[in-house]
Design goal:
With 449 residues, this protein is an alpha+beta fold. 23% of the residues lie in helices and 37% in strands. It folds into two domains: 2-221, 2-Layer Sandwich (PmbA/TldD fold), CATH 3.30.2290; 226-449, no CATH class. The protein has helices at 2-18, 74-87, 116-119, 123-138, 209-221, 240-253, 256-260, 321-327, 359-364, 414-419; strands at 23-39, 42-60, 63-69, 144-145, 150-163, 168-185, 191-200, 232-238, 281-283, 306-310, 313-314, 335-336, 344-345, 350-352, 368-376, 386-397, 400-413, 421-424, 429-430, 434-436, 439-447. The strands form four sheets. Strands 1, 2, 3, 4, 5, 6 and 7 form a seven-stranded antiparallel β-sheet that branches. Strands 11-10-9-14-20-19 form a six-stranded mixed β-sheet, covered by helices on one side. The radius of gyration is 24 Å and the shape is globular. The mean pLDDT is 95.
């Protein structure tokens, strides 16, 4: 099936050229999705959908257009190409918008992106995953309330791409995820909630429904009885989920588009020591079986491991072809999207590499500080690096987690925060396409009472 879609992409490229395009790129995505949601043991939602979409990007006389269609019949595709070319007549010329020139086309690595066991799952089996998860959650503590329930989802898809510079490729992939929300009521009738999720490309790699349910419940129950704290600057330990959230903020700052717009605090910092020497951050799309892995990007550029920060030194921004051309750089293989639109820049598997410390050692090093487990709202200025967000977590006293805290705000500056990372855990955890261990920052302002 993947080969059939790849051949279709190649035929569409030839058709676009024959109809007057100077260059063309074609992408086809096709697949099946299934979602089963259970609430209080009853089926709350069932969704099953199949789709196939063809996206066409055409280039003519310095102008570009992007369109898509779900009608893959031969007659419809011919008319679709003509309409796509007509759109270039009303678009502005842009010398930077062009198909990438590829120096080499290495063989595609086997990234173990597809698991037939996910495709073979029945609806009943997926519903059962969700039911078991919710049951395990409620078994943890009688105070747990009905929440949004548990949800199991799966997808199997094919991605094919071809362009007029001789590139063609395709691959199949699968993904399964299980998540549940736990809700508990505090003594003052305030609801405390938390969740847990597992997401993998292979079925056997998923955490069991019982593990997911138990962890969600334990995370919610431990939030009971939160206190407020006095405003002061203290050490802050970021749990793995919050460290992943921090990486998400940094992903915006290392975008080549942000560099072009001068909208990143990292502009002009390449080669500079901007973080603790314990910090190495990579974007690696070549890890087998990971959610963000892919052999080539949305422009057919072979993907590669990109080191963003190496032992504290900022090495590079990430680029698609368009923003690379605008800044005099080369694509790093980070083009994403592009079905019916021009691609943008995106990360693959974004990883803060593990360090030498156990999470127990990190906590033990804090005499008085915050264990950060939740961020709320928006408060990150990527241009200046200023960071200020609502937060919650647990207070650490003499190296021990003592009580939950809420209604606080955590503030700092991203560059200073990176430089202030003084411990990095050895507990790297993949949960989706972003991975990070526990980290400790020397000092952040925590605003409370």
């Amino acid at each position: 099936m993947a080969e059939d879609y790849q051949a279709l992409c190649e035929r569409m490229v030839a058709l676009a050229l024959a109809r007057g395009a100077d260059d063309a790129e074609v992408v086809v995505t096709a697949g099946r999705e299934f979602t089963a949601a259970v609430r209080e043991g009853e089926i709350d939602k069932l969704i099953e959908a199949t789709s196939q979409t063809l996206g066409l990007r055409v280039y003519r006389q310095g102008r570009a257009g992007a369109t898509y269609t779900s009608d893959l019949s031969p007659d419809a595709l011919e008319a679709f190409v003509d309409r796509s070319l007509d759109l270039t007549n009303v678009s502005d010329a842009d010398e930077h918008r062009r198909v990438p020139e590829l120096d080499e086309r290495p063989p595609f690595p086997d990234l173990a992106l597809y698991d037939p066991a996910i495709e073979a799952l029945t609806a009943e089996e997926q519903i059962d995953f969700a039911r078991r998860c919710e049951q395990a959650m409620h078994a943890v503590d009688p105070r747990l309330l009905p929440g949004d329930g548990a949800e199991f989802s799966s997808e199997v898809s094919t991605y094919a791409f071809a362009n007029s510079r001789g590139f063609a490729g395709s691959y199949r992939s699968s993904l399964a995820a299980l998540q549940v929300e736990a809700v508990v009521e505090d003594a003052d009738q305030k609801k405390r909630n938390d969740y847990w999720v597992t997401m993998e490309r292979s079925l056997v790699a998923l955490e069991t429904p019982e593990e997911v349910g138990r962890k969600a419940a334990e995370r919610a129950v431990r939030k009971l009885g939160p206190r407020k704290v006095a405003t002061r600057a203290v050490p802050v330990v970021w749990d793995k989920r919050m460290a992943r959230a921090l990486l998400g903020r940094l992903a915006q700052a290392v975008s080549g588009e942000a560099l072009y717009r001068k909208a990143t605090f990292l502009a002009g910092c390449e080669g500079e020591h901007i973080a603790s020497s314990l910090v190495t951050i990579v974007d690696d799309p070549l890890l087998p079986g990971r959610a963000g892995s892919r052999p080539f990007d949305a422009e057919g550029v072979p993907t590669r491991r990109n080191v963003i920060i190496e032992q504290g030194v900022f090495r590079q921004f990430l680029f698609d072809t368009y923003n690379a051309n605008r800044t005099g750089r080369r694509s790093t293989g980070n083009a994403r999207g592009g079905v019916g639109a021009m691609p943008g820049i995106g990360v693959s598997n974004l990883i803060l590499e593990p360090g030498p410390h156990t999470d127990e050692e990190i906590l033990a090093s804090v005499e008085d500080g915050l264990y950060l487990t939740e961020l709320m709202g928006f408060g990150t200025n990527i241009t200046t690096g200023d960071f200020s967000q609502g937060a919650a977590g647990f207070w650490i006293e003499r190296g021990q987690i003592t009580y939950p805290v809420s209604e606080i705000n955590v503030a700092g500056n991203l560059r200073e925060m990176l430089a202030g990372i003084e411990m990095v855990g050895d507990d790297l955890e993949f949960r989706g396409a972003t991975a990070a261990p526990t980290i400790k920052m020397r000092r952040l302002m925590v605003s409370g009472l």
